[in-house]
Amino acid sequence: MIKKYLLLFVIAIFVMSCSKKVEVKGKIAGGSPLERIDFAEASGVATLPLINIGVDKDGNFSGSFEAPKNGMYVINYAGKQNLIFLKGGQSINISGNSATFPNEYVVTGDGKADNDFFQACQKFLMTYGQTLNIQELAAGDEVKYVKGMQKIEADINKNIEENIKKFNPGKEVVEWKKTDAKVAILNLMVNYEMTKKQMSGNNPSFKLGKVFTDYETKLQENKDSMIKMSPFYRQYLLTKMSPGFQTFAQGKAQGKTDITTSELFSEYLKDQKEVSQTEKDYLLAFVMAQSDIHPQTPAATTDKIKKIIEEDIKDATIKADLKKMQFAINGFKVGDDAPEASLVKQDGSSYKLSENKGKPYMMVFYASWNPYIAEGTVPVLKEVVNFYKSKMNFVFVNVDDTKDQFTKTSNALLKGIQGTNVYGDGGLNSDVAKKYGVYGFKLPSFVIVDKNGKVASRTFNNLGDQDLITVLDKQTGLSAPKVDPAAQLQIDPSALQQAPQTAPAPVEAKK
User: How far is CA 62 from CA 27, 36, 65, 107, 428, in A?
Assistant: First the structure.
């Protein structure tokens, strides 16, 4: 019996040590119930918010999420963002003041030592940076510039060592900070290189001396680790590649109007034999996410990107992240089956999207924390519904945090508008949000489904988008008058005075 309990104890310890879940809670003094907090992985190449948490009337918040890895995460609040170091299995408390959060915050709990260390290093850099005159250094020769960079590296590392002794942080955050220092210097060096090259008239034979290149190489002793950890290192590598890529692209794209940046860069990388596959995966993913994955991406381009992701990205995690991001941004492919999802009405009865079969319908995703909905778009929404309601259905899908909030929001907001009001239980973590790629930064969003249950449009975020009206006309056989292209589905807080004060506001996610 003792052995049995000992075995269970060992299993429990093992499970805890392997947990990737991070429990976060805290309080923002003066925090508004019309604000949200979200977290995203800082080192990812195509990462989406891992959680979107509401703030109550007293500024309290709490939630948990699976952390893909130990490392830096971006914390977003009220349109502002900062970095925070997190590890799987932690339980941390974050506090701050609404006037300065998250630019300034205090961590207690499991992550205290790591984040005290990180913030102390960052404060040093803010002060130290004001003492530097990079322009004066850059005006000199490269030997003088390299000596200046070496002095900066030594000063930063001295501060890191002092903060290690003071805060006793974990090895991982120390490694991140040391890498970050190297990357900052590398970006200063590549800026120097590009400036000197321009001064030479972009002479193809221009190159820097051995002192410069040797120091640059020394700073990159573990390139694969650096590229996995630091988006700014990827930026450095892309800057280094830029001249060669520009020349390559000009030749390949000549006379072509439909070739994408992602296609060109993918082809360019195939000829770069000295670049590792890890570098190629991260850099190509970065370029795709920045250049060709956005809400206005044409269907043909979306298909090209899918093919590149499938064929040219070898890292399984990067491949999965890119696919997830592309779906979140571009939605379903027109003609795909619109999936069923768990939805409930105000009376608690379940609702199936297939109940609309035989008639096209529009799904409208929204939450109480979309600002200015009532005065901004509900009048336009009423006109759209009234114009098309004889030929199609409307399903208003609420993704608030609670069913009680859904009931109050839909009653206040959509009263008198013909359609079906339903709730995705769990809000942004609901079945419907996951299946339709709904995130806080995408709200409001609109998807049209045809009479056969097939997706008939990309995901729209603007009710006044002319392409959306074109699809509605096609599905109904009607011809609508033009609407204001600036119209957005937004919420007026005064329309929800009866709603609980836990109703939060949107935070724009980092891509």
Answer: 9, 11, 11, 14, 15
